[in-house]
Amino acid sequence: MGSTRYITSMGELTRKDNSLCFRKNGKNVYIPVENTKEIYCLNEVSINSKLLDFLSRNNIVVHFFNYYEGYSGSFYPRDQYISGKLLVKQVETFNNRRLDVAKSIVKGTGNNIAEVLYHYYKHNKKEVKGTIDWIRGGFLQGIEKSNNIKQLMAAEGELWHRFYGEFKNILLDDFIMNKRVKRPPDNPINALISFGNSLLYTKTISAIYRTHLDQRISFLHEPSEGRFSLSLDISEVFKPVIVYKTIFHLVNNRKLQVAKHFQRKVNYCLLNEEGRKTFIQEFEKRLESVFAHPRLKRKVSYRTAIKLDCYKLIKFIMEDKDFVPFNLKEKI
Predict the structure, then answer these.
(1) 205 vs 121, 235, 249, CA distance in Å?
(2) Residues 216, 129 share a domain
(3) What is the rounded distance in angstroms from the CA atom of residue 162 to the CA atom of residue 181?
(4) What is the DSSP string of 117-159?
(5) Domain CATH for 141
(6) What is the mean pLDDT of each run of 10 residues along the chain (332 residues)?
(7) Tally of CA atoms within 13 A in the half-sphere of 315 that contains its CB
């Protein structure tokens, strides 16, 4: 998994000399600090302040997930990259040009959803053409005419609704979704979406942490207490590219199966431990897969593409360069 470590079992995470030690069932598993950038705690994990101090000195971010596989919160060291100048300009951009940034995000999300659907259209799923045509026509035109954030959020809500409506043409019958249910997810496809979105959100938190941007000042989503709303903004255009392509691959290739990889209760449905490991493996594989970047003239991973979008936003804030989020078709 490269620089990311996932802990899926209950246990205790401690510092052992100059490395990390995860103890479960009386056995120690050692985690080298070198090259570890983030740790995911997907089960009940005990920690202490000695460990947190060690993590802080090594600039390691830790993300915590709850029983329902939803994101609970993050520990990250005091900001490595602090820029008062960028903070002031980021607030000014929010006050004066928020709508411009928000429109770019929604357009980018629409373009990437259309590109994902076009892949299935080319593979004889002709039913999706209506949604592709709507996105490339009326939807994008409507975004240009939007006068406020509320209109943009409503348009994006319809975009996702139409995208979910195409799942019946893309996925196997076991994974058909009647409607999007989040807290807690009530069926296998909702469980996959919620878990995938939470993973992407935390990947984006880690990416932003390693830039000079302020996590709290967002443009499409309302800045609010209790969450890093800029991560919601930056991750939005990558959901079709990373989360949904991961889901479609796992489901349609029967790598995830309802009877084998999920646990159901009365009002919720979750991935079991084997299901989580399967999803994480494919998610990380997609995140680390590379493409030829036409401007940089080199191969770039999707993980790096997230960070590049952060730098694009900084360029817009500081230098008034156009902010165009990642485009799956153009690979830029």
Answers:
(1) 33, 9, 25
(2) yes
(3) 15
(4) HHHHHHTT-GGGHHHHHHIIIIIHHHHHH--SHHHHHHHHHHH
(5) 1.20.120.920
(6) 82 90 89 89 90 90 85 79 86 97 97 96 92 95 92 95 93 74 76 94 92 93 81 97 97 92 78 92 96 92 96 96 95 88
(7) 11
